[in-house]
Amino acid sequence: MIEQILSWAGERNAYFWATHSGAELDLMVIAKGKRWGFEIKYQDAPTVTKSMRIAVQDLKLERLWVIYPGKDGYPIDERIECRPLAELNQIRAVLR
Question: Which one of 55, 56, 72, 82 is most buried, by most CB atoms within 10 A?
Fold first, then answer.
């Protein structure tokens, strides 16, 4: 999934982020002058984590998408939402 995102976001605009205290984000992309986060999960129904909240706040993310293998998208926090892998192209359109 990360390789697919990098193929259209560009490697120069993509970053992995982690703190000494253990918070981390799988991928941050800069597009349209804003920061967008991606977290990849293999669970059936991912929930928000402390690490996600820290990433949104510290990195000032416009939105953090949790990409998972399920069927339905749903919000899990104010700027965090789960999206199925099948909707990755819709996210791509937001960043273009």
Answer: 55
